[in-house]
Amino acid sequence: MNRPNWFRYASPRTFDPLAARLVPLFAVSAVLLIFAGLAIGLAAAPRDALQGDVYRIMFVHVPAAWMSMLIYLVMAAYCALGLLLNARLAAMMARALAPTGALFTLIALVTGSLWGKPTWGAWWVWDARLTSELILLFLYIGFLALHAAIDDPRRADRACATQALIGVVNIPVIYFSVQWWYTLHQGPSLSFGSGVSMSASMVWGIFVMTGGFWSYAIAVALARVRAIMRERRRAAPWEANFEERAA
């Protein structure tokens, strides 16, 4: 039985048609899951005894916050592969993920402010969790700005990879900030260590919305990396010709 050779998709030329087939699948999945998550969060989930209906912001805020950290970790992993293996596709994937990671970080910060105003009485406080999440947004913006500032794509990839790997130290700071320091921010929304502290519909709403956000991130990143590949082919056509001969 012949096993598929997944390493062949490490080449931009062979990865491009695969990405073209996957984009619509993940796009449709994202739409369905996000609508289902919103339906569960806004209609099926019960009213909170303490916060009323304000807590329903959680169904966007929590998945967006999770995605902001997860995408950065995936982006940093691609950056590490790009540096260690000199893999062009890995560097392109890191660049493709950065805008989506920045978007989810911004959504997390905005929805957190909307949730914080009625619960804390303020739109913003210099809380450890909020401040470290804001730093994450600056890391994403810095990654994109640094890449735009360097003309040579290969040098830009290496510089951005170094910056992304240094910035990884901020992810555990975000996650553990509520345990390490005194903070107004609530603890984990899902306390797996001591049992789930929410109703089943609330948990399902968060997970379904997270699946929708993740599907959206994959669809957009794949579409964006295809655009990046076309951009680099136009900028350096000799690389594309060399790759075709090598294949």
Automatic annotation (TrEMBL):
<comment type="similarity">
    <text>Belongs to the CcmC/CycZ/HelC family.</text>
</comment>
<dbReference type="GO" id="GO:0017004">
    <property type="term" value="P:cytochrome complex assembly"/>
</dbReference>
<feature type="transmembrane region" description="Helical">
    <location>
        <begin position="97"/>
        <end position="116"/>
    </location>
</feature>
<comment type="function">
    <text>Required for the export of heme to the periplasm for the biogenesis of c-type cytochromes.</text>
</comment>
<feature type="transmembrane region" description="Helical">
    <location>
        <begin position="128"/>
        <end position="150"/>
    </location>
</feature>
<dbReference type="GO" id="GO:0020037">
    <property type="term" value="F:heme binding"/>
</dbReference>
<keyword id="KW-0997">Cell inner membrane</keyword>
<feature type="domain" description="Cytochrome c assembly protein">
    <location>
        <begin position="22"/>
        <end position="185"/>
    </location>
</feature>
<keyword id="KW-0472">Membrane</keyword>
<dbReference type="InterPro" id="IPR045062">
    <property type="entry name" value="Cyt_c_biogenesis_CcsA/CcmC"/>
</dbReference>
<feature type="transmembrane region" description="Helical">
    <location>
        <begin position="21"/>
        <end position="44"/>
    </location>
</feature>
<protein>
    <recommendedName>
        <fullName>Heme exporter protein C</fullName>
    </recommendedName>
</protein>
<dbReference type="GO" id="GO:0015232">
    <property type="term" value="F:heme transmembrane transporter activity"/>
</dbReference>
<feature type="transmembrane region" description="Helical">
    <location>
        <begin position="64"/>
        <end position="85"/>
    </location>
</feature>
<dbReference type="InterPro" id="IPR002541">
    <property type="entry name" value="Cyt_c_assembly"/>
</dbReference>
<keyword id="KW-1133">Transmembrane helix</keyword>
<dbReference type="InterPro" id="IPR003557">
    <property type="entry name" value="Cyt_c_biogenesis_CcmC"/>
</dbReference>
<feature type="transmembrane region" description="Helical">
    <location>
        <begin position="202"/>
        <end position="225"/>
    </location>
</feature>
<feature type="transmembrane region" description="Helical">
    <location>
        <begin position="162"/>
        <end position="182"/>
    </location>
</feature>
<dbReference type="Pfam" id="PF01578">
    <property type="entry name" value="Cytochrom_C_asm"/>
</dbReference>
<keyword id="KW-0201">Cytochrome c-type biogenesis</keyword>
<dbReference type="GO" id="GO:0005886">
    <property type="term" value="C:plasma membrane"/>
</dbReference>
<keyword id="KW-1003">Cell membrane</keyword>
<keyword id="KW-0812">Transmembrane</keyword>
<keyword id="KW-0813">Transport</keyword>
